[in-house]
Amino acid sequence: MTPASSRRRDLAAIVASIAATVFGAGLGELAAAVVSPTASPFAVIGGGMIDLAPAWAKDLAIDLFGTGDKAALLVGIAVLLLIVAGVAGVLERRKAPWGRVVLVALGVIGAIVSMTRADAGTLSPLPSLVAGAAALVAGLLVARLRRRSTKAPTDDGVSRRSVLALSGVAVMAGALAAVGSVAVSGGARAVSAVRSALRLPSPATTTPVPAGADLGIDGLGPIITASSDFYRIDTALVVPQVDPATWTLRVHGMVEQEVVLRWDDLVTLPQKETVATLVCVSNEVGGSLIGTARWLGVPLRDILERAKPTTEADMVLSHSVDGFTASTPLEALTDGRDALLAIGMNGEPLPIEHGFPVRMVVPGLYGYVSATKWVSELEVTRYDRAEGYWTSRGWSERGPVKLQSRIDVPRSGARVGAGDTVIAGVAWQTHVGVSGVEVQIDDGPWQAATLATAISADTWVQWSLPWNATSGSHTIRCRAISADGQTQTSDVAAPAPDGATGWDERTVSVA
Question: What pLDDT is attached to residue 79?
Fold first, then answer.
């Protein structure tokens, strides 16, 4: 056999294996749509990769892709799957049946991983097994290609017929995957319809936004972040679809009385509307993984009072329906701050991707230890007995939000006209508050900025400083001063394990 002939046969084997693997993936996704969207082979493998990822890998993914990290992960899994399929095709042609073994093993691995997921059900392995069975078909097709190619009078005819036939299989796989996607989105539409028809109860108390809270400067982040612009960082590759009619919250553990609440129970309790800023621990200095919204819900202290935690308890481990857990200091849920079991965001029911129907909002703590979405359990316990999802992966235990400030105007790299202009941004240390912000231009003296009226200590505050800009390149820095007199540190630290530190800095060119 000539080298050219061998290469053509390898190429045909690669195409055959990839096409049939795509077919298997389509069948697996379709099976998941019928059985459970969270059992999707892609979601299962992706979730397993997220679970195994160390803190530095999580930060790297967010740095590179921001809130598109999940889409990037799924694309990466798809590319890796195609590469493995191609290698298996060549392996099958040269060392049968090892190519088939590789592809079937992928399905078996997916099935095993699916059973380790927190939301696993009896049928969770089925989609991955279906995909693996289709991968076996891929191996058989490659084996047939190998047998026919050894008998064919010409290599090209067999290769062309095989490629065309298996390309048709790939098209069929795409159609099946599309059908599966429609089925999954149909379930999502059902929950979306329930959400759209939902009417929130009126709050018994509300937090007003002072008239001077928003400086109205172009380019400055708004004091209230639109729900559609609010950052989303979580571990759910498939957004949970939870119907309020079936939702329950179980409060248990180190309590005198276990409590179970249903949706109807929750909405009849006195509601509080508050404004609070949430920030992700992965937010870099000057980053955008932060937002402020109006939240409607029931104070968590009222829920915990019903259960009566024992005196030995010091932590609440909140559970999401997707298996995520967060370890929150019991004190932070009972010390009088507006820690809510939230059902509303900016005057509407929670968006599905932000935890509908119920999530936690706890000012003063990074989200990884407090902001559990799709919450289903509150387990009262102790730090020496249990760990949350990210604390078990090396992040700090309690996660208080650090003092930070950010420059929004002018943008880094912007060209500014000489003369009178403005420097502006936001500052925060939720549940502590900000008393001042200082700005430094180049290596000049620190200048006190003007603060907007703060809504409360639980929200960020806008600030501004007039600037008579002169021609040339300038470096602008900012630092905040907390309500208890601490000055934001200049020490640079990465987000892991307990939040980034340092001064935000912008370089601008003045024409």
Answer: 82
Q: How far apart are CA 405 and CA 452, in angstroms?
A: 14
CA-to-CA dists, residue 241 to 18, 188, 321, 405, angstroms: 32, 6, 10, 36
If asked whether residues 320 and 409 sit together in one domain, one would say no
Q: Is 462 helix (H, G, I), strand (E, B) or coil?
A: strand
Q: Which long-range contacts (CB under 8 A, 24 or more apart) does 104-107 make?
A: 104/132, 104/133, 104/135, 104/136, 104/139, 105/132, 106/81, 106/131, 106/132, 106/135, 107/24, 107/28, 107/41, 107/131, 107/132, 107/133, 107/135
Residue 357 preceded by cis peptide, ω within 30 = yes
Domain boundary at 163, 194, 225, which?
A: 194
Phi, psi values for residue 415, rounded to 5°: -105, 125
Number of domains the chain contains: 3
Question: CA–CA separation, 191 vs 242, rounded Å?
Answer: 7
Shared domain check, 218 and 254: yes
pLDDT value, residue 109: 82
* pLDDT for res 52: 72
State the CATH number of the domain containing residue 379: 3.90.420.10
- Kindly state whether residues 173 and 82 are assigned to the same domain: yes
Q: Look up the domain containing 78 and give its range.
A: 3-194
Mean pLDDT per 10-residue run, the chain (511 residues)?
69 73 76 74 76 70 69 77 81 76 81 76 80 70 55 48 54 55 60 92 95 95 96 88 95 98 97 97 95 98 97 97 95 96 98 97 97 98 96 92 98 88 97 98 97 97 97 96 97 94 95 87
Predicted model pTM: 0.82
Q: Of 343, 361, 393, at which residue does a domain stop?
A: 393
- Cα diameter, the chain: 87
Does 134 lie in the same domain as 249?
A: no
Q: What is residue 155's predicted lDDT score, i.e. its pLDDT?
A: 46
